[in-house]
Design brief:
Layout: E1 6-8, E2 12-15, H1 22-30, H2 44-61, E3 65-70, E4 76-83, E5 96-101, H3 110-124, E6 130-135, H4 140-148, E7 152-153, E8 159-160, E9 172-179
Antiparallel strand pairs: 1-2, 2-3, 3-4, 4-5, 6-9, 7-9, 8-9
Length: 180
């Protein structure tokens, strides 16, 4: 298994995190549009804690959620990468492919472009046999990215997210899977 600290696509650099990413990541995680399908916006402290957790994941597993920046202008736009979910669910153990981009970069195919590179890396370099992705049923933008990647929705595998309380409007999740 050959690890990497960076991937490049036609328009993106996916790389390890820098201190200079903290402020734009805080702004992004405070945006209600970006966090619409999450339990809520993150405080600056919670956003920084997330970066720290992502970096620990890289240290522990050799892969993680890459900071994503536009090659042109070197602008930070969010993250795209891999993680191991830290909750118990029927589909576990699994590796998740995920993304979160600032709203101003939506609709340009950047999440799909970056996720394709990450999926290729996961299968060709890390030798994973499958990836999962999940979200709430109403998150059509993310579901479209999953479908563009060739991921298949298995309604039998949809689940209630164990970190959200019974009755929470975001508890139900759809599960998509992509096999090598």
């Amino acid at each position: 298994m050959r690890m990497t600290d960076r991937l490049t696509t036609e328009r993106l650099l996916l790389r390890r995190w820098r201190d200079s990413d903290r402020l734009p990541f805080q702004r992004m995680n405070a945006d209600p549009r970006v966090m619409e399908f999450m339990p809520g916006p993150l405080t600056p402290e919670a956003s920084d804690t997330l970066i720290d957790r992502i970096e620990r994941h890289f240290e522990s597993y050799g892969f993680g959620l890459f900071a994503a920046e536009l090659l042109e202008g070197k602008t930070f736009l969010g993250y795209i990468g891999l993680s191991i979910p830290t909750f118990d669910a029927p589909f576990m153990p699994a590796v998740e492919i995920g993304w979160r981009l600032s709203a101003q970069y939506w609709g340009r195919g950047l999440a799909t472009e970056g996720a394709r590179a990450v999926a290729r890396y996961a299968f060709e370099i890390l030798s994973f046999s499958s990836l999962v992705s999940f979200t709430v049923p109403a998150n059509l933008r993310s579901r479209r990215v999953m479908e563009k990647l060739g991921m298949i929705h298995d309604p039998q595998a949809d689940f209630d997210h164990p970190r959200l309380p019974q009755g929470h409007p975001l508890r139900r999740h759809v599960l998509y899977r992509l096999n090598r």
